[in-house]
Amino acid sequence: MALPSLPTRPGASVLNIEDILRHAVRGRLRVPGFQRGLKWGPRHVEELFDSIVRGFPIGGLLLWKQPAEAAQLSFGPLVVDAPAIEDALLIVDGQQRVTALVGCLLHPDEQPIGGTHALWVNLATGAFEVLREIPSSPSPWLPVNVLGQRRRLQQWSRSASFGEQTEDFVDRAFQIEESIIRYELPAYTVEDASPSALRLIFSRVNHSGVALREDEVFQALFGDTDQPKPLDALAQGLHEETSFGMLPVNWLLRCLKAIAELSPKLQFGEHSPPPPELLASARTAMRAAISFLQREVGFFHASILPYRFPLIILARFFHLHPKPHPRSRTLLTRWLWRGALGFVHGNSSHASVASHLGDIDMDEHKSVQRLLERVPKQSPLPSAREAWYGQAAITRIYATSMLLDEPMQPEAEATWTRPALLAALNEERGLAELFPSCLRPPTSGSIAIAARAFLPTGVSTQELAQASDEVLSSLAIRGEATKALRAADFDAFVTARAAILEERLEALVSLRASPDENDRPPVSALLAG
Q1: Which neighbouring-strand residues pair with 128?
Q2: How far, in Å, are 59, 138, 195, 364 from residue 5 at the CA level?
Q3: What is the pTM of this model?
Q4: Among the four residues 290, 440, 484, 502, which has the most C-beta atoms within 10 Å?
Q5: Where are the domains of the chain?
């Protein structure tokens, strides 16, 4: 595939920070669609301004001149209603720096507090810092946005009062303002360039310094400027079709590589572009894999999936075998549960991914058998007295068990339907909020899994204690656990309920992991082999 070139050489010029501020306010500076989102935190912003004042180089800008439509632009906290313009400057390289400069120097709040761009300068020490609260008065701290507008700085200087240090601090403020506003950056401006050439430039520029994440480079290199980013679109499409939740784009990229049979260690790039049909193939395979997880395995939402590692393996499997034999689906369910219980699937290294993908070929049944050989048939069941950590596999396994028990809503005395469960899990709340503690713990610190139940509607302890036995049983609360709940005895409740949860998990594991069952392939495969 021939790589694009530029018809004319980029023009070199110099922009000072005052120029950048003026272009931003007038709506001339824009961000192209293939750019990544803002990644800088307070430390990056503080170091940028410190470098400017010290006279350090902070890198150049790469701009793309072309017409742009009217749009609302954001530079951190600053919002600009930009008109249509014929000679807009799209920032190909330098977005993080430009946003930091404009967002801090033109911050709309009089005394900015909190957020990445709430930058202040200490006139006594010269230090820059993003502050979380307004400093006490009198204080040598000055908001940086005072330095971005000469009129504001002059007004501040007339009312500044620091005793004997007033003159020194005012002089220091004007010196810092001068060093910032007059600071010059080299800029290259590209004209008459194709979007593909700009995406390639963007990719190479961001591989030569502090590299972007692999998924960000993929989105820039293989997306269209007027379309949603490809991995974002894939994540959104799968979520809309399955309600499984938004999968992280870096994991989706690993799934794409598995489907394309690209080594986990390698990257898609200008010399190894993805096949044109890859995204469509991935959507089909991932949709089948997610449907399998939801309907047969029991992990019906991403937030309760113990490990994401199996997604990569299932993507390859369902790409090669879109309609696997029912026996294969049963055995894959065992593989998933055994791998989670034995913590085997917690290893998502490139080496682990490569070895597992090597197990999968066009022979469906041998592929499944090879995967099963990698996981123990039986593992010790985790204790429900373990502390609840939303990202931990044990927590997610117990959360799955509780949800598969068809919990009821105490206030309505109705069973949660699967669509309602998915809607609750998709509210972007953490598992700890969806599974609150049934009783207030006597001490602060971590709370045991057994103390929590699926109560996303915010039922109070008193309301829960007054719920019917049928409702409580659906929440794995019965017998001694019910007595302890109604007596508000936290320790007794955890002890009694842990036994119930462990009993229910043991039954679920017996059904899904089937440690005592024969793992033979279907009879048809045995006869054919």
Answers
A1: 121
A2: 24, 58, 11, 45
A3: 0.64
A4: 290
A5: 1-212, 225-372, 393-512
pLDDT of 221 higher than 80: no
Measured distance CA(36)–CA(274) in Å, rounded: 20
Per-residue confidence band for 434, with pLDDT thresholds at 50, 70 and 90 = very high
Q: Is-contact 492 484, C-beta < 8 A?
A: yes
Q: What is the CA 442 to chain-centroid distance, rounded?
A: 34
Positive or negative, the Cα torsion across 256, 395, 397, 294?
negative
Q: How many whole angstroms separate alpha carbon 175 and alpha carbon 279? A: 54
Q: 208: part of which helix (H) or strand (E)?
A: helix 195-208
Two structure tokens written together for 213? 């994440």
**What is the per-residue pLDDT for 206?**
61
Cβ neighbour number for residue 103 with a 10 Å cutoff: 27
Q: ∠ CA(24), CA(203), CA(211), 5° rounding?
A: 90
Q: Render pLDDT for 321-361 as a digit per residue (tens, 0 to 9).
A: 999 999 999 999 999 999 999 999 999 999 999 999 999 99
> Which strands form 85-93's sheet, in the order they lie side by side?
11-16, 184-190, 61-68, 85-93, 29-30
Q: Helix and strand tally (H, E) in the chain?
A: 22, 12
Measured CA to CA, the distance from residue 75 to residue 79 in angstroms comes to 6
| 184-190 vs 61-68, strand pairing mode | parallel
Amino acid at 518: N
Radius of gyration of the chain (CA): 29
The kind and range of the H/E element at 431 are helix 431-434
pLDDT score of 443: 82
